[in-house]
Amino acid sequence: GRAHPSVRMSSYYTSHGPCFSGESRVHLSGGSGGSGGSGGTKRLVDVRRGDRVLTPQGTEATVRCVVQTKLASGECDLVRLGSGLRITPYHPVLHHDEKRNTKEWVFPNTLAKASLEPCSAIYSLLLEQEHHQAVLINGVACVTLGHGIAEGAAAHPYFASRELVVGDLSRMKGWRQGFVVLSEGCCVRDEETGLVCGLRQSG
């Protein structure tokens, strides 16, 4: 089959999935019962299943699973955005173009240059609620795993599919506890398109 037209060729060949550095800070919900509101921030490295986080819409979402990818190389290409967000170059973020007054999902490396930085692990989040698609990290709206968004850079046949992502993660060690550890080379790629089509856990 043909690759999705909105997925750029350059995104096919990243060495691991879309993630954040452990020092990046996710915004927590200060409310209860879905009322949202700001409740401070927490480093990604400290986030666990059950933590209540803030969505870009100002509502509350619950973390179902933290996915940690350990980097044997000890370094990773990262883009710095906002107030300290360190994110992999192809993890879609919501960009507000003030001149055009538009918002669109773009790759971080279209906003700033990526550079190789010391990094022992990178992190991704899966939310409990299916209708929640993104979280705020260092003030930037970032997609979560299985987000279901079909627009712009967020469109992806695997990472946007909750069914496929959960299908893989739910078979992995750590899923029940909500903390899955992967290693470099965890991404399974479609031989025809080069796009990630699955995740695997070594060991």
UniProtKB/TrEMBL annotation:
It comes from the Eukaryota. InterPro entries: Hint_dom_sf, Intein_N, Vint_dom. Residues 30-40 have a biased composition (Gly residues). Residues 18-198 form the Vint domain. One of its GO terms (biological process) is intein-mediated protein splicing. It holds the Pfam family Vint. Residues 24-47 are annotated as: Disordered. This is Vint domain-containing protein. It comes from Lotharella globosa.
